[in-house]
């Protein structure tokens, strides 16, 4: 596919009314080109337009890691997780304890606020994990409670971000629910 740059902007296909126009008339209108679409490995590189040509840039390990992180973050279902968490046994225990424990009350309030932010695309991951850790310190959650939380984290694509404190899943559970992509 041939692309044209309008006033040195990023090349794109011509608008329909200009398709078939002569190169001379395109140049008179401020277009340059044609430029072939760049060929590159999108997993390891990116194409950047310099204003006159494509430059193929190799991504650093840090950039690749950031891209993977953002890909996982984009797949995370914070809304589903938040709704399922509110119905979980461990949250119900924390909610009941919040009536008599100021710390648990604060933890639950902060957790709800952090999850509300996550649902709108602004997850405060460290805050959510800190609330989980503090609630775990305050309550006597059973292994079943922690397994339920772990399963929720897995089911909603959050295992790259959230941890269940003081919980090691059985090897079968961890293998069946990993983010192996």
Fold and architecture overview:
The chain is mainly alpha-helical and 181 residues long. The chain folds into 2 domains: 2-59, no CATH class; 63-176, no CATH class. The chain contains 8 helices and 4 strands; from the N terminus they run βαβββααααααα. The protein has helices at 23-28, 61-75, 78-86, 89-98, 102-119, 125-138, 143-155, 171-177; strands at residues 2-6, 31-36, 45-49, 54-58. The protein has a two-stranded antiparallel ribbon. A hairpin with a 4-residue loop joins strand 3 (45-49) and strand 4 (54-58). It is elongated and about 80 Å long. The two termini are 31 Å apart. Residues 177-181 have low confidence and may be disordered.
Which features does this protein show?
181 residues, two-stranded antiparallel sheet, mainly alpha, single chain, 2 domains, elongated, disordered C terminus
Topology of helices and strands:
Layout: E1 2-6, H1 23-28, E2 31-36, E3 45-49, E4 54-58, H2 61-75, H3 78-86, H4 89-98, H5 102-119, H6 125-138, H7 143-155, H8 171-177
Helix pairs in contact: 4-5, 5-6
Précis, in short:
This protein has 181 residues and is mainly alpha-helical. 51% of the residues lie in helices and 12% in strands.
Q: Low-confidence parts lasting 5 or more residues at pLDDT below 50?
A: 177-181
* Residues in helix, %: 40-55%
Task: Summarize the main sheet.
Answer: 2 strands, antiparallel
Number of helical regions: 8
């Amino acid at each position: 596919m041939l692309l044209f740059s309008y006033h040195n902007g990023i090349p794109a296909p011509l608008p329909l009314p200009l398709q078939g126009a002569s190169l001379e008339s395109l140049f008179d209108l401020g277009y340059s080109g044609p430029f072939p679409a760049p060929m590159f490995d999108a997993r390891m590189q990116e194409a950047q337009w310099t204003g006159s040509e494509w430059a193929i840039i190799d991504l650093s390990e840090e950039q690749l890691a950031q891209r993977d992180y953002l890909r996982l973050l984009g797949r995370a279902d914070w809304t589903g997780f938040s709704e399922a968490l509110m119905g979980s046994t461990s949250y119900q225990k924390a909610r009941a304890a919040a009536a008599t424990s100021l710390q648990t009350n604060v933890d639950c309030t902060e957790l709800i606020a952090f999850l509300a932010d996550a649902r709108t695309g602004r997850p405060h991951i460290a805050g959510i994990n800190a609330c989980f850790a503090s609630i775990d310190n305050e309550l006597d959650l059973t292994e079943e409670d922690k397994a339920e939380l772990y399963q929720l984290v897995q089911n909603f694509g959050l295992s790259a971000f959230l941890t269940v404190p003081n919980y090691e899943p059985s090897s079968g559970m961890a293998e069946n629910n990993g983010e192996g992509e």
